[in-house]
Design brief:
about 325 residues; alpha/beta; Rossmann fold; 3 domains; four-stranded parallel beta sheet; 15 helices; about 15% strand; globular; binds 1,3-dihydroxyacetonephosphate; binds iron/sulfur cluster
Length: about 325
């Protein structure tokens, strides 16, 4: 083994990677992260990674790590010529919309999202025809075309705050596309579905499948446990938890509290990151993998940086991008 790889293995171990479950040997991972980090410098590129990405990507290569809101903000005006977005397609598109002059790449263009795939621009136009005076509040997990038809974008970390503001001036709101998040927000805000909030039939394939019964079972065993769930979970889950929010909200909650155990009802990636960030806390992480988030590997990040192929590059038509940008900037305005 050469000395560079040996030092890289040490760096990865210091970051906590050896404690986590990875498919390849540390030697193979180290060879790839070394090469990727060298390519990043040569190509003046940065890597943005969502918290559900594989741990070797997050700990070994990422310049920014976070939830959808943080990543959208981190990518604004970033000092680089190229952004390689390790996440799903709508996230890379958002980065491109906010940085039209930079080249944005995604290592797997087929990394979709069941929420984003559930609705098209034409569906939004039809909703607007049916409810002409209701503003369209759209979850960030949507395509650029859908964002372009929307009034304001929200993420799971600011949806409640923004919806409250929108309801100050409107009686009725269209909330798309996550029916579970919409129902959870309606419950929080005391609004009626079908009259106050018009929903779309979209859902996340990861968060819709957790079993609420498991919460009661674990509570018997760990009575001082804090249960947290992502707001994309159905309300049968949310009713039983102590905290609902985005992935970053959950990490903040762990940081600021002292429960005996934390149950995390979301994609496995968050549990892994939490275990590395807070080694003295105890986690019961529900493990469901997002099939789209986990498509990206170190190998295809390396290929993307090396070849900068158009099949990995994100392009958004100017007329769509400018409208979508307005609705994303409205989110920044309302969220701050
Ligand atoms: P966050 O904004 O909480 O990271 O959520 C994005 C997502 O896709 C969750 O499934
Ligand atoms: Fe989409 Fe669900 Fe995967 Fe998040 S976890 S990217 S909402 S499919």
């Amino acid at each position: 083994m050469n000395a560079d790889i040996g030092n890289e293995i040490l760096r990865l171990k210091e970051k906590g990677l050896s404690k986590l479950c990875v498919e390849e040997s540390l030697e193979k991972i180290a060879a790839l992260t070394l090469e990727i980090n060298k390519l990043k410098k040569e190509k003046k590129a940065v890597i943005a990674a969502h918290v559900y990405q594989r741990p070797e990507i997050i700990l070994g290569t990422a310049d920014f790590v976070g939830d959808s809101y943080k990543l959208a903000k981190d990518c604004v005006g970033v000092d680089a010529e190229i952004i390689v977005f390790c996440g799903v397609n709508f996230m890379a598109e958002t980065a491109k919309i906010l940085n039209p002059k930079k080249r944005v790449f995604i290592p797997r263009k087929d990394a979709g999202c069941s929420l984003s795939d559930s609705i098209k621009a034409e569906d939004v136009r039809n909703l607007k025809k049916n409810y002409p005076s209701a503003p369209v509040v759209t979850y960030i997990n949507t395509s650029a075309d859908v964002k372009a038809e929307s009034d304001v974008i929200v993420t799971s970390s600011n949806a409640e705050k923004i919806l409250r503001k929108i309801f100050e001036k409107n009686k009725q709101v269209i909330f798309i596309p996550d029916k579970y998040m919409g129902k959870n927000l309606a419950d929080k805000l005391n609004k009626k579905i079908g009259t106050d909030i018009i929903l779309w039939d979209g859902s996340c394939v990861v968060h819709e499948k957790f079993d609420p019964e498991i919460i009661s079972d674990y509570r018997k065993k760990y009575p001082d446990m804090m249960v947290m769930a992502h707001s994309e979970c159905p309300s049968e889950i949310i009713k039983k938890v102590d905290f609902m929010g985005s992935t970053s909200d959950m990490l903040k909650q762990i940081e600021n509290t002292n429960a005996s155990h934390y149950m995390l009802i979301t994609e496995c990636g968050l549990g892994e990151l939490a275990a590395v960030k807070y080694p003295n806390k105890k986690f019961i992480a529900m493990c469901r993998l997002c099939p789209y988030m986990k498509m990206i590997t170190l190998e295809n990040i390396k290929d993307t940086l090396l070849n900068l192929k158009s099949e990995n590059e994100i392009f958004v038509e100017e007329s769509v991008a400018s409208k979508a940008k307005k609705s994303i900037e409205k989110m920044f305005e309302f969220a701050e």
